[in-house]
Amino acid sequence: MTSEHPRHLAEALRRRGWLISAWPWRALAYLVSTVPIAGVLAIGLLVIGAPLLAAVNALLLHGRPPSIALMLFLGVGSLILLALAPIVSFLVATIERWRLRLVDSRPLPASPWPGLVARYRSAATWREVAYLFWLGGFVPVAYWVLLLLVLLDLGMITSPWLAGDAEPVVIWQPIETTGEAIPYAIVAVLLLPVFCYAFGLLAALQAAVARWVLARPVDAAALREVARSRTRLVGAYEAERRRIERDLHDGAQPRLTSLTLQLGLARLDVPEDSPAARPLAVAHDQARGLMVMLRQLVHGIRPQSLTDLGLAGAVRELADAATIPVTVHADLHGELPEIVETTAYFVVSEALGNVARHAGATRAEVRLTRPGGDLVVEVSDNGSGGADPTRGTGLTGLADRVAAADGRLLLASPPGGPTLVRVELPCRR
């Protein structure tokens, strides 16, 4: 759903009331303010471009090679142009970021001066240099074409007043009388809104190019390092999780079990009318409650059924415990990484919990497959649909858990149902 006030020119152009809004004037201001910048850049490029085109033309048409003086001028001039371009592009890019606010209110990050050496070594610098050549080469040509069309349209509008002069008015053909000029004038007036949209489209195109070039490029190396860092963190988390699980299962849980048994035996030896009977009974009940809590904690870290039965068996156990009929289809081959098994188990557990609490479904289905080697988990139901991650149904946390395993979660839940949760988990070891 679009916002009430467009944030940029391309969005405003799609609105019906564009012609009577302030956006045409903003587009015109953007185009007019471009003229001095593009003009200066075009002159600078013509200093090298015009002699180069003349030399190429002479070589192609007349077979005359350029003189040594001209080649020396072109070589030295090109080197100077490339040497100055990163510095000039920084100034132009700063101005362009400021001017872009005329037609685009979306924030564009500033680019501070990184230092002279870093300026020449940065990939973003040469993007700005490319924009410099585009602004001084293509933009003036587009402006001249549009200006000639506007002048032709103005000539057609004024042709009825000029047709009575001694010299005929020439548009496509000579016009000698006012009657002949009136149809041209009517067509030209009808074309005025078209020219307003043409100005807007040109300004929107120029702004889109400026935003694409001047925005900070994605640092691929930094993204790879972030991905590797996340993998290391997930691996460290899994190792720590296994250590905690092992300590609880092999250390605290047996000792607590022993304590519970000793308290139970002590209760049998103490008479019921003894003053110590009631406190001993309370301690025994608390120990049993603590045992249950500890088992739940260990189960929450890594379910024992997952270790004993594997992913398919653990999921079938979840299906048997569900409050509605759940069908499980498992087509798994080969071993799965531990983090993938754990993530998939909790995905199914949370998804079936959501079905029971929110969907109003009468049945559900779980599919576990490995097309292409990666694990795909699909949980579907015949409920009312309309699942929304923003309403706190656990989907956001589920997506975060999946993302930590370098996977992705897809949700299809139209109003009225059905709902499908699909999770794709890479199985790289």
UniProtKB/TrEMBL annotation:
Superkingdom in the source lineage: Bacteria
PANTHER family given in the database record: NITRATE/NITRITE SENSOR PROTEIN NARX-RELATED (PTHR24421), NITRATE_NITRITE SENSOR PROTEIN NARQ (PTHR24421:SF10)
Identification of the protein by name: histidine kinase
CDD domains cross-referenced by the UniProt entry: HATPase_UhpB-NarQ-NarX-like
Gene3D superfamilies assigned to the protein according to its UniProt record, in alphabetical order: 1.20.5.1930, Histidine kinase-like ATPase, C-terminal domain
Substrates-to-products reaction catalysed: ATP + protein L-histidine = ADP + protein N-phospho-L-histidine
Membrane as UniProt keyword: yes
Keyword Transmembrane listed: yes
Record's keyword terms, sorted: ATP-binding, Kinase, Membrane, Nucleotide-binding, Phosphoprotein, Transferase, Transmembrane, Transmembrane helix, Two-component regulatory system
Cited InterPro entries: HATPase_C_sf, HATPase_dom, Put_sensor_dom, Sensor_HK_TwoCompSys, Sig_transdc_His_kin_sub3_dim/P
Membrane-spanning segments: 28-56, 68-92, 129-152, 181-205
Cellular-component GO terms for this entry: membrane
GO molecular function: ATP binding; phosphorelay sensor kinase activity; protein dimerization activity
Enzyme Commission code(s) on record: 2.7.13.3
A Pfam family reported for this protein in Swiss-Prot or TrEMBL: HATPase_c
Sequence ranges assigned to domain Histidine kinase/HSP90-like ATPase in this UniProt record: 339-429
